[in-house]
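Have a close read of this protein, sequence plus structure tokens, and explain what the tokens say about the fold. Thanks in advance:
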Amino acid sequence: MNTKSDNAVVRNSLNQMIGAKQFLRQLDVLRSERTTGEIGEWFVAELYGGTRAATTTQPDWDVKTTTAKLQVKAHAKGEGNNARWTNVKATLQNFDELIIIAFTSDLFLEEFYKIPIQDAQNAVKQSGKSHIIKWDDVRKFKVQLNALPRQDDLVCFFIRK
């Protein structure tokens, strides 16, 4: 890909991506440049009828429902990416449940975990200077995608057909 026309195709594709991001901002799906995280938080708020935190930098919880405060961690996993863990703070606090969403690289649902805070706290492991939760350690909290609410008007758009 060295030609001027190839570079024009790249620029055109970038313009389409920028336009899509601007439109998603207008729809209040995106609020920052953390695209995958923002989509995950929007999805969880829609899924459970919650409200996202007023700012994207609020610590601890991301979505508030009538019954719980949820911390959301979303991943878009590329093909060949076998990582099965989520970075978290060393101390998890001030929320009720940790939601971990694994999307495919094209943003279809792959895995969904809903973990009570106590179990999330117990699952935190140190990995170098980071703290992580390994998905296999919380597999009993994996929610089958067909058991999620809003199958007919939300989840159906995030399941690969």
Q: What stands out?
A: The CA atoms of residues 47 and 103 lie 15 Å apart.
